[in-house]
Every structure is written in structure tokens, then in C-alpha cells.
Design goal:
The structure is a homodimer. Chain A is mainly beta. Chain A has two domains: 237 residues, Sulfite Oxidase, Chain A, domain 2, CATH 3.90.420.10; 116 residues, Immunoglobulin-like (Sandwich). The first copy, chain A, contains six helices and 25 strands. In chain A, strands 16, 17, 19, 20, 23, 24 and 25 form a seven-stranded mixed β-sheet that branches.
Chain lengths: 365, 365
Amino acid sequence: MTDTVARGRARTAEPGEGIGLDELALATRNHGLPLEALRYDVTPPGLHYVLTHYDIPAVDPASWRLGITGAVQQPLDLDLTALQARPAVTSRVTLECAGNGRARLEPRPVSQPWLLEAVGTAEWTGVPLAPLLEEAGVSAGAVDVVFTGADHGVERGVEQDYARALPLAEAMRPDVLLAWAMNGADLPPQHGAPLRLVVPGWYGMAHVKWLTRIEVLDHEFDGFQNAVAYRLKTEPGDPGTPVDRIRPRALLAPPGFPDFMSRERFLPAGPVQLSGRAWSGRAPITRVEVSTDGGGTWTDAELDPPDPAHPFAWRSWTLDWTAPPGRHELVVRAADSSGAQPLEQEWNRQGMANNLVQQVPVTVS
Amino acid sequence: MTDTVARGRARTAEPGEGIGLDELALATRNHGLPLEALRYDVTPPGLHYVLTHYDIPAVDPASWRLGITGAVQQPLDLDLTALQARPAVTSRVTLECAGNGRARLEPRPVSQPWLLEAVGTAEWTGVPLAPLLEEAGVSAGAVDVVFTGADHGVERGVEQDYARALPLAEAMRPDVLLAWAMNGADLPPQHGAPLRLVVPGWYGMAHVKWLTRIEVLDHEFDGFQNAVAYRLKTEPGDPGTPVDRIRPRALLAPPGFPDFMSRERFLPAGPVQLSGRAWSGRAPITRVEVSTDGGGTWTDAELDPPDPAHPFAWRSWTLDWTAPPGRHELVVRAADSSGAQPLEQEWNRQGMANNLVQQVPVTVS
């Protein structure tokens, strides 16, 4: 490994540097939501985004066990049958990768090269975590809860099982689930079978897959994925701030039809309904605006009312447009009470939590 | 569109040219089989490779109809209920994209940039096509059968519904299916819902998805996907030869664990079982060989016997290896009665039907 890697620092591409074979190897393994699939309220199997840090592990559900240990009165050791005997709940949750949009940044942080498609919405079925932690009896003075998966690999020189911690208060939220089913079927291998964590509102890195251990700590977790990887850093050596909740974003299902290679869009002149989804993990979406002139002027889209049954799922929006002949740049922008998506990139070294607006050039004839 | 595109020619990357944003946009939409998923006899939902030329169309199965027309005595017009009332069969088939391996070629043909992962095996359920063509009464003198999908787009300047023809004799093979189910469930949208063609043994481009029309021609089909796109061409202007059946290939599930970014593999010294799959659409696989020294010496792997129930599915192979410390290059090579995989690339302008051997560097400690 190179010195850069050994130092635990992310690499930034040189100006004009094309996507490398390493980035491509990640892009062909992992996959995004083809944006026309924004049409589905719940993303069909295989179209939900997937990011796997290492290999998808082979976990035998029959011998699998979950340990709840650390700063607790009574450690627990559970098998799948014991978990599934508890009252289950189902929750519709929109998940987005913290690295979504990374490959559009300039300069480009070198990692999984997402454009805009690292998102999806699923119905997760499982048991709330909080009652299990209560049963184990969290010690006074507990700080973090660490979730460890069965996936094993090396990252910037550090060999590890994937592990991420949540602050105790977040782990105790009533909507945080240990899920064994996705859209009514057993979890597929790539989504964490037999059990994964679901933390509604947080970026994907918190939703630990192939969960094997939950450990309560009386101090802050200093593992790689919390202390090094998922942080907003602007300078080399900057310790940065943690990545947590999903920032507001709207995406448009590109109208018309594409060119195979360039993915440029073509559509006939006349009325067309623009549509897409908007979401935020911070606060309810308050507004979606659309520009058909590259951001010069903006029109409010019609935003579906919030559905009290699905507070953590994306919402639909539509806008009727009469497309005039010519080339146009469509831009969409969501806002929640914390603010609107930025029109200029907000760069950070690892390309995390970027919610720059989407731009869709279309040719109308 | 550029002149190059308008001329209908594929572009080849310049020496050293990185992967472009257009190639990346395809790589993030489409996706391959993470090679550790070679462990599954039947590829789980969402891990099977997907290539969609344009957008995934939204087809309403209730109003969908299939027309069988052209050089037939009695055109047919069928809905899904009528098809599903016929005796169904299920067939396990390994599918591979004709462009698999393209991004490893030098110079690199610019298109969907597959490395090695454009493969998968599924159980397809549907009705054989031949009895339907017999019912329609294929005219004497029929030559080709054209299959048209609901997917619409532009490719090198040509606006089109995706359409591919098979020679009549291939279309009449008893194992060619019109399939509405994959692995026991309705076809997912990205695999062609509500109905797709399955042509066991042929590369993926023949297995037309979102099927809406079947037309029997009394002449050779000259549509884009047969006459221009899926052909082996070496010179500009070369009409080339058609891509048809899958060439032999073996893939190894990379042993050990990966580095996140480089995907380099690490494993401890000592005994390890190497394993993977091998397939060919031309003739049964006769041999799989493994080299642990970059192709210097070769050892025969243990190849599972052919399973008469699944003549079109990949076969497992294994080889016990005692890994010595150091850096090694693993290479695997399959052969059928038509020959073995090449050790040097066989280049063509569109990067089609390439079956150069896989190389997996591993670091043993």
C-alpha cells in the first residue's frame, strides 16, 4: 500500500484525472437506483442502492447469533428465532449513501464514485432495538453503542470488521430497528442477511449490515468508520466532524428518453409532467422547486402531503411543464426547515453528505 | 451528437485515458455480480448482472399485450393471462453480457465498462416459444424472428425501440422461453417485466426484455442491434460478424478479504479452497485449470459433473491450495470442446464476446 493509504488519508483526483480502475471496480460491484425507478413508492428488489465496503459475507442464519455486551447489567445472546418471536414492526425508510454525489465534486475524492443514484426506499421489518437494550440494562454512564458486522476487510491500512457507533440517545430512539426482512422477504445477502440495523434519517453508513455484535461503551468509540472515514474534513489532518443525518435532496426522474452512451435526454415539445422524490433525515421537506433554465428562475413543484404512516420515506413531487423546443437545463432543489440544497458544491475531502442540486440537460424537439 | 456518434461507430479510448463520466453513468446504473456471489448456485435477487440500454420502461401488466405477426398464417395477440394458462416450464440459465471484460481491453472500447462481473444464473419460468410460433403458422421462406421491447432510446444517432432478431432455427429451439418469472417471483422491472425472452446459451443481448412484439421476417433483419451493435469488428467500416453464443469462461471467487479501495486480496498462509464457476454457451465445459504463478504452471481444478437437470447453468469447480507467504497471481482458465480461454486479449472495436482469463493478485501473509 502507498504511504498515502497507510496514513489513513483519502486521495483526491488530480484536475482532469479520469475515473480510475479502482473506482470502476467499486462502481461495477455496488450499484445505484436508475433514476427512472424513482417512480416506485417502494424500490423493487435489486434497484435499491447497495454499498458494500468489503465482500458480502456468507452468514449461516441457523448458527448466527447476536451478542449484546459491554456496559450492560445482563449481556444478551440471541438467535434469529428469539428475535423473531418478539413483536415485529415494519417501517418504510429512505436510505441514502453518505457518498452520494461524490463523483460530481471537483476535485473528485477518490472512493466509490456515485453520481446521484445512491438512494432507495424499502419496507424494513424487525424489532425495535431500545427494548433489547433496556432488557440488557444499559449502565449509567454509557456513551456510545457500537454495531459490528460480519464483513471483514482493510481500509487505508486498517484491517477491521465493519463497525459503527451511534450515540446512546440515537440508539435508544423508538424507531431504530434490527431488521430481518426487506419488502416482505428475507433480507437479500447484499442488504445484510440475516440481520441489519436500520436508523431512520441517518445516512447508510449507520445502518450496519450482517450484524453480529452490539457493544455498549462508557466512552466515545474511536473505530475507523467513526473516527476516520465518515467525517467532514476540509484540510489534510483535519479531524473533521461526524457525518450523521441525511441532508435534504430532491431528485427528478429524467423525462423523455435517453441516448445509450451519453445518457442525454430527448423529449417532444409540449406538455410533460416532471416528477420525482424529495427527502431529508433532518426535518420534514417544506418545499421543492424546479428550474427549467439552469437555475435562472424557479417554480414551486406540487409536493405530496406528508404521510403520517411513513415519516421516514421520501415524498413525491410533480410539476406540469410545457416543454418548448430547444436545449434546457432542468434543476431541482428541496428544502427543509434547516435550509435548501446548495446551488454550488460544498466540498469536503471524502465527498460526504454532499447535496448539491441535480442538473438534467434535455433536448426538446 | 458528434460526427463519430452520427456515423454509428463506437469510440475507442486514447492510451491512458481514464474512465469517462459517460462510462461511469452506465456503470452506476447497470450492475454486475460481486464475485463472492459466485458462491450461490442461483444468483439471489439484485446480485444478477443487469444491463439496460435505455430506461427501464414502466409496463402495466394488466393492459400489456404481445403480438406475433409478420410472415405467419395467423397473427396472434396474447395477454399475460393467456400465456400463463399454457403449460409452464422452469429453466436454470447462466446469462452473460456480450460486453463482459470490455473495460480490461487495451485500447478500451467506450461503452458499458464491465470488468468481469456481467454474469448471473437464474431460474426462469415461462412458456416455450416454438409452440406459439407453430400456432401462428410460420410461412415457408421465413428467415429471422425479431423480438422488440418496450424500451426506447437513441444509440449512435438511431432512435429505436430495442429490437433483436434470432435466425428462425434458433427461435424454434425447444428451450427458448417467454418468461414472466425469475427465481419463483414475478420478473423485477429491470429484468423485463412483464415478459422477456430467454435464449439459453446466447449472450444477454438476445434475451430481449419488456417484450411487446414478435415479428417473423422473410428476410434478414437489418436493425441496429443486429447489423451495427452486436458484431465483432476489428477495422473501422468493417461490417463484422454477429455475436451469438457465450464463449467459455471460468471465474474465481477471490479468496481472502479485500482492501476497500484497491480491491486487492489478503489471506493467511496455509490451506485454502479456491472455488468458482465455469460456463459456455457453445459446448459443455471440459476442463478448468488454475495457475497460482501468473500463468507459468497450471493445475486441473475439480469440476462438478454436468447436471442433466440444468444443461444451461454454470458448473462449480474447486481446487485445494496451500498458500505460501508472498504475492501471487491466480489465473483461471476454462475450456470447452471449441477450445480454451485465451491468455492474451482478442481485441475487437466494440469489446464484445471477450473471454480473456481472469487474473487475481493475492497477498499471503
